[in-house]
Amino acid sequence: MAREKLKKYLAQQVELGNTEIVLSTAHKSVAPQPVVSKPSIAQDTLFGGVGTPTKESPVQPDPQRTLDSFYHEIKDCVRCPLGHTRTKFVFGVGNPKADIMFVGEAPGRDEDLQGEPFVGRAGQLLDKILFASKFSREEVYIANVLKCRPPENRDPQPEEMETCSPYLLEQIRLINPKFIVCLGRIAAMQLLKTKLALGKMRGSFHDFNGIKVMVTYHPAALLRFPSYKKDVWEDMKILRKAYDGLEL
């Protein structure tokens, strides 16, 4: 019994991104920052944190590009080994002019088969989270850091994320959302370029080139640890309040 409890505790710490076991810690609540309007994202600004596109880059500047045309540009990508093992390229789905964009880490088995993000059990739970927060799947945009499924649903490797992240950055530039919700620590670490534990990133907005970023648990984590649902609900209430304030 003690061993099972220890295994569950360690799994939770991994989900949180903690690399050390902490016996006690002080918690300080962080108030959400006010949301301000922002101009459209220039491509050189968006790529500024990860390097300006070059001739070797998978994404070249194109003022005529649309989200649909971008999909057709990259849907046959084989820049990393995952491109040779996938069933379908999982680009993204939703409103191309969405104010809110959800970003996960990588497709799973169901997503790989259908070519659409968040369609398995975790996706069904995400739909319920959206509904409870008075959002719909049709009005937001949903994507992943990786566009191809890692074998056995393992965590994305750093080189895979670095190869694929320019695609996500271009999706963000084209959609130009006002909010991004990072689902899980891997998406947050990649987008925000941080090694902070997920628990320390929750509860407030972070900045990504003028876009407000909320970090919360991946729906798959809620399937393993239902107690996290309360935390996600609190995060979504902060997002909903900020979004409603922006509409005023």
One letter per element, helices H and strands E, the order comes to HHHHEEHHEHEHHEEHH
Evaluate the radius of gyration: 18 Å
Tell me what the CATH architecture of one domain is.
3-Layer(aba) Sandwich
Amino-to-carboxy terminus distance: 53 Å
Name of the CATH first level of one domain? Alpha Beta
Helix content: 40-55%
Number of strands: 6
Biggest sheet layout: 6 strands, mixed
Describe the structure using short key phrases.
Uracil-DNA Glycosylase, subunit E; six-stranded mixed β-sheet; alpha/beta; 248 residues; 10% strand
What would you note in describing this structure?
The chain starts with a helix and ends with a helix. Helix content is 42%, strand content 10%. It has a domain at 90-248: Uracil-DNA Glycosylase, subunit E (3-Layer(aba) Sandwich). By secondary structure, it is α/β, with parallel strands linked by helices. Residues 19-39 and 43-55 have low confidence and may be disordered. A 6-stranded mixed beta sheet has the order 1-3-2-4-6-5, with helices on both faces. The protein has helices spanning 2-16, 43-46, 67-74, 82-85, 109-114, 121-132, 158-175, 185-192, 198-201, 219-224, 229-247; strands spanning 93-94, 100-104, 141-144, 179-183, 206-208, 211-216.
